[in-house]
Design goal:
alpha+beta, 7-stranded antiparallel sheet, two-stranded antiparallel sheet, 3 helices, 9 strands, 24% helix
Length: 160
């Protein structure tokens, strides 16, 4: 979920993952190396259509207004996981990170169809996903494209 053109289905996968994030990590996930600590930056934004505007950026095929402010969601743990042959990262937020994650997912859900929960990892916007309902819990799973390295994403979270 890197800030490059990707197929729109990646955003859909990220949405499904976020909706299911209140559950624990997927059964059968093979855990890789574990990393403790770090952060993911989160913000709520809306879609845009004027791609000539420098504030309108493409994230995985979805154009969103570049958020001016991101909130830091501290991460307690990030684990490389393989789920049904896909690269994935399981994220567990710390208690204060959980509050940020839950609050912003609620805000995105309340804002409607044009709203997106935007995730920035390692200084790069990684995803802009639709949130259908407020999310509870401290876990999230990020599904990556086959070209992306889950370990690199974990390393970026740790550096956050």
């Amino acid at each position: 979920m890197i800030l490059n053109s990707r197929t729109p289905w990646l955003s859909l996968i990220a949405l499904v993952v976020l909706v299911l994030s209140a559950c624990s990590a997927a059964d059968g996930a093979e855990e890789g190396s574990s990393v403790t600590g770090g952060a993911i930056e989160l913000a709520v934004s809306e879609t845009c259509t004027d791609v000539s505007d420098p504030q309108c950026v493409s994230v995985n095929g979805v154009n969103v207004v570049l958020p001016s402010v991101f909130e830091r969601a501290n991460v307690e743990d990030a684990v490389v996981a393989a789920v049904e042959g896909q690269n994935a990262v399981d994220v567990t937020f710390s208690s204060d990170g959980e509050v940020v994650f839950n609050t912003l997912s609620d805000k995105a859900a309340q804002a409607g169809d044009a709203a997106r929960l935007v995730m920035k990892i390692g200084g790069k916007i990684q995803a802009a996903v639709t949130v259908m309902q407020a999310l509870d819990g401290n876990q999230m799973q990020i599904i990556l494209s086959p070209e992306e390295s889950a370990q690199e994403v974990v390393d970026l979270i740790r550096a956050g």
